[in-house]
What does this fold into?
Amino acid sequence: MNEKGEPVIDLEKCTRCRLCIKACPVGAIEIYFTPEEQKILDELSAKERAKPEAAPEKPAEAHLAKLGEYRGVWVFVEHAEGRPAEVSWELLGVGAGLARARGVELAAVVIGDNVEHLAREAFAYGAHKVYLVDAPVYHYYRTEPYYRTLCYLAEKYKPEIILVGATGLGRDLAGAVATRLETGLTADCTGLAIDERGFLLQTRPAFGGNIMATILTERTRPQMATVRPHVMPMPEKDASRSGIIIREEAPVREEEIAVKVLEIIPDTRLDTVDVAAADIIVAGGRGLGSAENFRILEELASELGGVVACSRAAVEAGWMPLERQVGQTGKTVRPKIYFAVGISGAIQHLVGMQDAETIIAINRDPHAPIFEVATYGIVGDLFEVVPAITAYIRKRRAEKAAGSK
Ligand SMILES: Cc1cc2nc3c(=O)[nH]c(=O)nc-3n(C[C@H](O)[C@H](O)[C@H](O)COP(=O)(O)OP(=O)(O)OC[C@H]3O[C@@H](n4cnc5c(N)ncnc54)[C@H](O)[C@@H]3O)c2cc1C
It folds into this structure.
């Protein structure tokens, strides 16, 4: 803008591409050049065309050599006031494989207030080493002290890989750390492996779940990835394992932190059922037809000691709360038994449940894609099949109870 508030085109910078005209959402831009301006622009574009083509950018040799200074696989141990998030142990499971493939150590990073017990638990789940920063400033999670501390540790000890759970907290922390360390971060990975050059292959669904993309962080370290809970299997716990604890002083002081936690108020409106932790899930989709019809799934779930979940179609119809949605934009689950009732089996649903031990699909369409991942498939009307299963279980239970008298 000039001093009169009029827009001015910087002729040194303008390339006449006119993309600004297309980009303006209200069509407010029109460009006309005076003959003198046109002359300058023509000269500038002629100069531009005469320039030899720049060689493709190569990562600086010195920088590549620096990548070799980074060693070890780290897992950030998430917790809420000392109660660990299980995803941290799942990440130690996958991290152990990565560390073996790279011939390096697996370390856990424990930041918190009075959290030494988490270091012992990290050893039980496979960590060789724990970086422990224990101080009152970490009592409640706040982005600033946590991300500054993780950055401090990463800059000091230079890990090649950092894994973080793709939870609300983990996404917040990992994004801040990657930004500050100026490194790559791949969110919501469903697969992690090491390639022949020793780089981390980070695989995740892309384009609405229609393709799987494998992403590499080639030029910077650490390589950072987040993984959703229940995507990776839980490793065996062995309480006899131990390791080295590296204690660090907190590199941040309370008076430096702008955000203060005054009180924690639990959201009582939130659905208290934890779908992701359930062993038996009875999930319903659009085929249920109404919120009331989910009652038949509640009955089956209660007979089996399970919980009711749903597809996104059921959430969008307002039949079920978002917390119960399974899939790419919902929860990832790994139950022992997953009933998919009136669910077609769209890829975005499958990515959230296909690792269930047993999948029982009930659908009246024999060609529904859900049958491709199902262990058992029942082709039929759910309003007949589901009550029949519930009635059968009740009958067997009653017979068993009568037999034991
Ligand atoms: C970016 C993006 C993210 C998404 N994320 C998710 C996600 O996280 N989770 C998710 O679930 N979806 C997600 N979706 C939506 C997904 O693509 C599907 O639209 C959705 O999963 C379909 O839900 P549905 O199977 O319940 O419904 P439909 O595809 O309509 O299937 C209903 C099924 O019910 C069967 N049926 C109907 N009546 C009966 C009956 N009486 N008896 C037996 N069977 C019956 C039908 O044969 C059909 O197979 C996402 C989509 C996009 C684009």
About this structure: The chain has a mean pLDDT of 90. The two ends are 90 Å apart (CA to CA). The chain has three domains: 19-50, 63-256, 275-403.
